[in-house]
Amino acid sequence: MATFKRLLAWISDLRIAIGLLLVIALASALGTAIPQGELRESYLEGYSDKPWLGFVNGSMILRLQLDHVYTSSWFLALLAWLGLALILCSWRRQWPALQAALQWIDYQEPRQLSKLAIAETIASPPKNESIDKLAAHLHQQGWQVQQQPGRLAARRGIIGRAGPMLVHLGLVLLMLGAVWGSLGGHRLEQFLAPGRSLDLLNRDGNSHLKLTLTNFGIERDPAGRPEQFRSKLELLEPGQDTAKLHEVSVNHPLRFHGLTVYQADWSLAAITLQLGRSPLLQLPLRTFPELGEQVWGLVLPTNPDGSEPVLLSLTSEAGPVQVFDATGERLASLRPGGPTAEVKGIPIRVVEVLPASGLLLKRDPGVPLVYIGFLITLVGGGLSMIATRQLWAVGDPENECLHVGGLCNRNLAGFANELPSLLAAAVPQQ
Questions:
Q1: How far is CA 300 from CA 30, 65, 117, 244, 309, in A?
Q2: 349 - beta bridge partners?
Q3: Is 419:404 a contact under the CB 8 Å cutoff?
Q4: Is the pLDDT of residue 128 over 60?
Q5: What φ, ψ does residue 20 adopt, rounded to 5°?
């Protein structure tokens, strides 16, 4: 039993909890620095030539579960340990401290008050009724008072004692919500072009929601840099005939029946061309990372046998569309909706460029717990700032004086400075 108690004391030690917080913060930094949730091959290839920090290669990242830090077994174990430490600390220390604070302590002798952090003796004639006047004044100042013949006990700010327990409770709920969201949540990032739909399935494989992108717009500044993305969505539930219309933009996500849709990114989906008098051709675009971070394009043959291809590249839906031959020489610059240009004897006209909206869909069942835990933590932190003050007074008719003593868990010096004015207002000296 003694060993078990020592173990509980060690687990709930404040220094251990601080150490756990530092380790969890460091682990979270690792999860931010190393891309999470990518394919196994991407880590093996990406960190083979250039190891992270000079020595952490792809195999080590996979072995240490650094590719999914927040759902790794060791990270969840750290959260569980910290949660257990907070629960034990509340159970072994904060709860007894709160119970003790709620109980009234009845000091009856002046010598008992002299041992308190603040102790003072003032003159009080026998007929001055100092105890009654002090009790009435403390009541007016918002103190709780328990009065006995010839003595009193008063306290103020006792609710502050509940603050640390609420902080611990809020942190535990926050961690439970985060773990629940990591293990039970779902995340999907999808690029949709206007007119395209996405069917979301439930766990049984049945259609849960049909999401259709009706329009996507990019707002740019005078220099052409994107400032805001807006997606207009239609959400159709099974069994419903009418779709619900919503708009999603950056920093303005959509929350619908536990599903959160974020405007995360943008891309270029397709380009519509007309070659001579041909029908309109809508051709898909792909990225060319070797040409730049945000460069899209397609390779277009100019002969029936596929020879002499040209590259059409662009960086925005507004163009221009640059046309290059196999040697890298620029042959033409086309604007969407602009005039036709001849490339290697073929008239080419760019009708339009179709942008795609990058949507991030998240279902996180732990979000309510996280919000509740965060709220409780804030409330507990605010209550913890409230100082708990306790005051006792014992009359001494024989020596015609009043003995006063007090305790305060915060700002003891401020309470000591306030006490003389409190007593002077209640027990004016002759």
A1: 43, 43, 87, 40, 5
A2: 274
A3: yes
A4: no
A5: -65, -40
Report d(CA 308, CA 293) in Å as an integer: 26
pLDDT score recorded for residue 428 = 65
- Name the helix (H) or strand (E) containing 228: strand 226-236
Which tokens sit at 160? 């502050």
Where is 112: in which H helix or E strand?
helix 110-113
Q: What does the block give as tokens for 277?
A: 């008098």
Residues 6+ positions from 310 with CB-CB distance below 8 Å: 299, 300, 302, 323, 324, 325, 326, 331, 343, 344
| Nearest to 352, CA basis, from 364, 335, 339, 367 | 335
Q: Would you say residue 168 has pLDDT above 70?
A: yes
pLDDT for the residue 272: 93
Secondary structure letter of residue 43 according to DSSP: H
* 20-38 tens-digit pLDDT: 889 988 988 888 888 887 7
State the pTM of this model.
0.67
CA-based radius of gyration for the chain:
36
The average pLDDT across 135-157 equals: 90
Burial class (CB in 10 A: 0-12, 13-18, 19+), 307: exposed
Q: Which of 307, 306, 313 is nearest to 328 (CA)?
A: 313
Q: How far apart are CA 426 and CA 130, in angstroms?
A: 7
Q: What are phi and psi of 293, to 5 degrees?
A: -70, -40
Tell me the C-alpha to C-alpha distance, in Å, between residue 322 and each of 316, 330, 369.
11, 7, 52
- In whole angstroms, how far apart are CA 385 and each of 163, 269, 389? 8, 55, 12
Give pLDDT, residue 42.
82
Domain annotation for the chain: domains and CATH numbers: 2-98 (no CATH), 104-157+387-426 (3.30.310.10), 186-267+359-365 (no CATH), 274-351 (no CATH)
Q: What is the mean pLDDT of residues 324-337?
A: 89
Q: Reduced to 3 states, what is the DSSP secondary structure of residue 405?
A: strand
pLDDT greater at residue 347 or residue 205: 347
Per-residue pLDDT at 166: 92
Residue 419, phi then psi, degrees to nearest 5? -60, -45
Burial of 86 (0-12, 13-18, 19+ CB in 10 A): buried
- Tell me, what amino acid is at 49? D
